């Protein structure tokens, strides 16, 4: 493209076409300035007129030609932009920091598994070890005092651990403490306890010479029978108690006591009259004294059972040695 005085030839052509309508007007202007007709028809003169007109247009309007389009931002232009000041950056950085701190401080509850509930039966291995660590009846009693697992759903009951000679060869095991036993903290101290004392006296056995305990060590509500769960939870403690005493004879008083130790569902009348091996001892069964208070017809069978017990006691050479009962 050719230029003349900084203006392209295309611009001349474009301007020339636009200005043809103005030529006559320019001629009239120059004619008024006393130009001759020959000068008006001279090409050089006409070109001079056009240049004069273009110059006038450039001074009054924007230059004729292509209108420059806005340029795209370049890297150099971006680099030329002033960098944000520290005061402008601080709010954004501070907001991001606060958001991050809040996210870190927020508890991640969806990642935390609920703590598992503790099942009392799941502690059996640890319980066995703890019971074996009890080397005396005093240590076992202290351990039972702290054992929530031994309690029934009756609140504020007292531990009825057992009482008697810790080296006894004869161990009597009842079912559960009653109201009087719970109050005194000793087994068989109520009406049934008084009857038991008389029965033992009939075969010349003093309560101080033997040991007496129960399947349960806490009183159940309304003197009800111990539940299967209560019996299962209490049995390991009683077994440890038996192992520490090491009796030669065990007398179960009542159906609950007999079925728990022998792991049987048989009726009491079917379990009477025999000796069963149990943890190094010989075990026999008779009626509970409370049953005798309700049904006097059971007294004869009980008398037969305790006579058999006394005979076995003497045959095994149990201590202490007892005076003849007949």
From TrEMBL:
One Pfam assignment: UDG
Biased region (Polar residues) positions are: 101-111
Alphabetical UniProt keywords: 4Fe-4S, DNA damage, DNA repair, Hydrolase, Iron, Iron-sulfur, Metal-binding
Which residues fall in a compositionally biased region of kind Low complexity? 73-100
CDD domains noted in UniProt: UDG-F4_TTUDGA_SPO1dp_like (cd10030)
Taxonomic superkingdom: Bacteria
Q: What are the residue boundaries of the Uracil-DNA glycosylase-like domain, all occurrences included?
A: 161-307
Protein's UniProt keywords contain Ribosomal protein: no
Start and end residues of each stretch annotated as Disordered: 67-126
UniProt-listed InterPro entries: UDG_Type-4/5, Ura-DNA_glyco_family4, Uracil-DNA_glycosylase-like, Uracil-DNA_glycosylase-like_sf
Q: Which GO terms describe its biological process?
A: DNA repair
Reaction(s) catalyzed by this protein? Answer: Hydrolyzes single-stranded DNA or mismatched double-stranded DNA and polynucleotides, releasing free uracil
- Specify the enzyme's EC class, one word: hydrolase
Might you give the EC number(s) for this enzyme? 3.2.2.27
Q: Which PANTHER family match?
A: TYPE-4 URACIL-DNA GLYCOSYLASE, TYPE-5 URACIL-DNA GLYCOSYLASE
Identify its protein family: Belongs to the uracil-DNA glycosylase (UDG) superfamily. Type 4 (UDGa) family.
Name the chain's protein. Type-4 uracil-DNA glycosylase
Which source organism does the UniProt entry give?
Cyclonatronum proteinivorum
């Amino acid at each position: 493209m050719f230029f003349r005085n900084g203006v392209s030839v295309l611009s001349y052509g474009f301007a020339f076409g636009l200005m043809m309508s103005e030529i006559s007007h320019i001629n009239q202007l120059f004619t008024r300035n006393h130009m001759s007709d020959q000068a008006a028809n001279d090409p050089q003169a006409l070109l001079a007129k056009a240049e004069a007109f273009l110059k006038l247009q450039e001074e009054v309007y924007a230059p004729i030609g292509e209108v420059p389009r806005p340029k795209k931002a370049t890297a150099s232009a971006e680099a030329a932009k002033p960098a944000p000041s520290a005061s402008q950056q601080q709010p954004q950085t501070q907001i991001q920091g606060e958001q991050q701190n809040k996210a870190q401080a927020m508890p991640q509850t969806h990642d935390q598994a609920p703590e598992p509930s503790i099942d009392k039966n799941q502690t059996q291995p640890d319980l066995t070890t703890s019971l074996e660590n009890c080397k005396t009846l005093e240590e076992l009693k202290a351990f039972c005092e702290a054992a929530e697992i031994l309690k029934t759903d009756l609140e504020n009951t007292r531990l009825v651990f057992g009482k008697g000679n810790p080296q006894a060869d004869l161990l009597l095991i009842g079912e559960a403490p009653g109201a009087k036993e719970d109050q005194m903290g000793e087994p068989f101290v109520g009406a049934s306890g008084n009857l038991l004392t008389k029965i033992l006296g009939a075969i010349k056995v003093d309560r101080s010479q033997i040991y007496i305990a129960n399947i349960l060590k806490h009183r159940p509500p309304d003197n009800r029978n111990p539940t299967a769960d209560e019996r299962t939870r209490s049995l390991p403690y009683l077994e440890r108690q038996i192992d520490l005493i090491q009796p030669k004879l065990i007398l179960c008083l009542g159906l609950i006591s007999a079925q728990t130790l022998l792991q049987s569902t048989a009726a009491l009348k079917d379990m009477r009259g025999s000796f069963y091996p149990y943890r190094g001892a010989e075990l026999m069964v008779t009626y509970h004294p409370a049953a005798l208070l309700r049904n006097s017809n059971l007294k004869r069978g009980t008398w037969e059972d305790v006579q058999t017990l006394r005979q076995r006691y003497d045959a095994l050479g149990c201590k202490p040695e007892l005076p003849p009962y007949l």
